[in-house]
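Session log. Operator J.P. requested a structure for one protein chain; no other inputs attached. Running the standard single-chain path with token output.
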Amino acid sequence: MKRFDGRSLTLGITLLIVGAGLLLAAPNPLLRYAGGITAFAIGLGVIRRGLRLD
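Structure written below.
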């Protein structure tokens, strides 16, 4: 029985990368902090769900 979901892990890792990219490179402070932190947090949540850590 598989303990993880590959699609959720892929989406979570992608959102982590997008969030980190926004935190580092976004020109607008609102986009940088609100968008970056939100994408990063959603990515962590999706990875948690993908690994079935609930």
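Operator note: The chain has two helices and no strands.
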